[in-house]
Amino acid sequence: MQLWFSELQTPHMKISCRVKEVLHREKSPYQEIAVLDTYQFGRMLTLDDVIQTSERDEFVYHEMLVHLPLLTHRDPRRVLVIGGGDGGSVREVLKHPSVEQVVLAEIDERVVEVARCFLPTISCALHDPRVRLQIGDGIRHVQENPNTYDVILVDSTDPVGPAVGLFSADFYRSVHAALRPGGVFAAQTESPFFNQDLIKRVYQDVSAIFTAAGLYLAVVPTYPGGMWSFTIGAKDGALHGWSRERAAGLPTRYYSPELHEEAFTLPVFVKELLEKE
Amino acid sequence: MQLWFSELQTPHMKISCRVKEVLHREKSPYQEIAVLDTYQFGRMLTLDDVIQTSERDEFVYHEMLVHLPLLTHRDPRRVLVIGGGDGGSVREVLKHPSVEQVVLAEIDERVVEVARCFLPTISCALHDPRVRLQIGDGIRHVQENPNTYDVILVDSTDPVGPAVGLFSADFYRSVHAALRPGGVFAAQTESPFFNQDLIKRVYQDVSAIFTAAGLYLAVVPTYPGGMWSFTIGAKDGALHGWSRERAAGLPTRYYSPELHEEAFTLPVFVKELLEKE
C-alpha cells in the first residue's frame, strides 16, 4: 500500500513521506497529534499536520537548540524548556552535568504522553528526577518566575496559533527578566529561506533586549528548505566565551566544538537580511 | 487551479512545488526536459522529473561548486565544466578575471538550448566569447585531453543513467590526468543524509588519486534533505592555500571568504562517515 503523509510547508511547497503505519492519532484540546511510522525518517511526530520531529533527524535540531546556549552559560544549573513536549531538548540539557533542574513548560500534556508512549528514544530523559513537568502556558510561567533560570530555551511550533506569543518582544522581555544574572536564551526561529521577516524582527528584538545576540544555523531535513535558524541572547556578556572544555565531553551526532562558532557564520543573503535597515 | 509538480527524492520521500505554468516540455535523445514556472522557486528546470536548478536557489549550488575550487587554484586560466548545461556554473566561473577559457562539456545540447530560452538569469554567460560549448560525452572529453585544464568541475545529475560514469574511480583518474600541474577538481556529490555510501566511496577514491581531498557542504532547499555535499581534490599541494584576496572581490549571495573554510567543518555524523573503515 502506498500511504503518504504530506505537509504543506509553505502555501506553495510540500514534503511527503511514505508511511508504514499510523501509530497514533488524537485531537487534544490544542491540536491534532499524530505519530507516523515512516520509511525514511522512522517514527515521526506531527502536530496539526506539521512535522515536529522524527527519530532519524531529531538529533540535529535538539543538539543545536540546546548545546550552544548551555555551553555559553558559565554554570547552568536551572534550565527552562518552553514547548518541547517530545522531550528531546530535555534529553540534551541533561547531558550537561552542572544542571540540577530542568523545567519543561509544555501547554499540551497529551504531547508529552504521546511522546512517552511512542517516541522512547526522544522522550527517554523525561523520567529523570531532575525534570519538573509544568503543564501550562509557557508565557505565563516566564512572567511569574522572575530571576529564576540560568538558561531558557524556546522549543516551539511554528508561529501560528498558541505559539505566536513566543515570537513577540513582550515575551523576550519576560524571558530576560526570568533569567538570573549571566543568563542565556535561545529559540528556534524558522527558515532563512521562507521566514525572513520573522527572523529579522526576532533578531532585532533580541538584540535590543539582551546584551549580546546572535543567529546560528543547522540543517534539519524534515523542516522547510533544510536550513534552520536559532536566535540566541546573553543577558550579560558575550556569546563567544563558551566552554570548549565542557563541549569536548558531550556525546553528539551533529554538534561539535568546531561547529559551534562556525554555526554563526551566515551565508551572504542571511547576513544581509540581518544587517539591512 | 492547483497544479503540482512532485519529485520522488528517495523511494520514500517527495518534494512538491505548486506550478503556475508549464513553460516547456520535450523529450531529448537523453531525457525529458521541462521548465516549470513555480510559485515558490520561480522558474525551475527538471530532467526526468528531478529538479536540477531553480531561479530562487540556484545561487547556492553554483557559487559553492565553483568558487571554492577556483580560489584554491593559484591562477585558473582554463576551466572545464562537465554537465552544467543550464550555464549557472559557467556564469560563476567567469566572475574570476584570470579565466581565459571555459569549456562546457554537456552531453545534451537541448538542455543548453532550453536554458538559453527559458532561464536567462542562469544561462546569461553562455554567450561570452571565453565559453566553448562542447556537446558530447564529458568522460571521453577528459580522456582525450590530458594535461589541459587548471580546474575541472563536475556539475552532473544524480548517479543514474549517463551520469553513473562521472562517479567512478576510472573517471577521477582521467580527470587527474586532464589537469595541468597545480590543477583542482570539484564535483557535486549528493546528500550526506541519503547517499552516504556514495559520498564515502567518492571521498576515498579522490583521496587516493589526488594529493589532497576534502568534502564541503552547502544548503540547497530544492535538493533532498537540504544539505548537499561537494568533493574537492588538488593535484599538487593542499586545499587551504586559497586566495582570500581574490575571494573578497567576488559578487556572491551565499559564498563568502568566512564561509569558505567553514564549509569543510562537518557535522559529527558526516565526519564519522568519512573516517570509518
Q: What would you note in describing this structure?
A:
Chain A has about 280 residues and is of the alpha/beta class. Chain A has 2 domains: about 50 residues, Roll (Spermidine Synthase, Chain: A, domain 2), CATH 2.30.140.10; about 220 residues, Rossmann fold, CATH 3.40.50. Chain A has 10 helices and 12 strands. In chain A, the strands form 2 sheets. Chain A has a 7-stranded mixed β-sheet with strand order 8-7-6-9-10-12-11. In chain A, strands 1-2-3-4-5 form a 5-stranded antiparallel β-sheet. In chain A, β4 and β5 form a beta hairpin. The model of chain A has no long low-confidence stretch (mean pLDDT about 95). At the A-B interface, β1, β2, α9 and α10 of A face β1, β2, α9 and α10 of B.
Class derived from helix and strand content of chain A: alpha/beta
Quickly count the domains of chain A. Answer: 2
* Helix and strand sequence of chain A: EEEEEHEHEHHEHEHEHEEHHH
CATH superfamily of the largest domain in chain A: Vaccinia Virus protein VP39
Please summarize the sheet with the most strands of chain A.
7 strands, mixed
Question: How many beta-strand elements of chain A?
Answer: 12
Keywords:
homodimer; seven-stranded mixed β-sheet; 277 residues; alpha/beta; Rossmann fold; five-stranded antiparallel β-sheet
Topology:
Two copies of one chain form a homodimer.
Chain A: E1 4-10, E2 13-27, E3 32-38, E4 42-47, E5 50-54, H1 58-72, E6 78-83, H2 88-93, E7 101-106, H3 109-118, H4 120-123, E8 131-135, H5 138-143, E9 149-155, H6 169-178, E10 179-188, H7 196-209, E11 212-219, E12 227-234, H8 244-248, H9 257-262, H10 268-275
Helix pairs in contact in A: 6-7
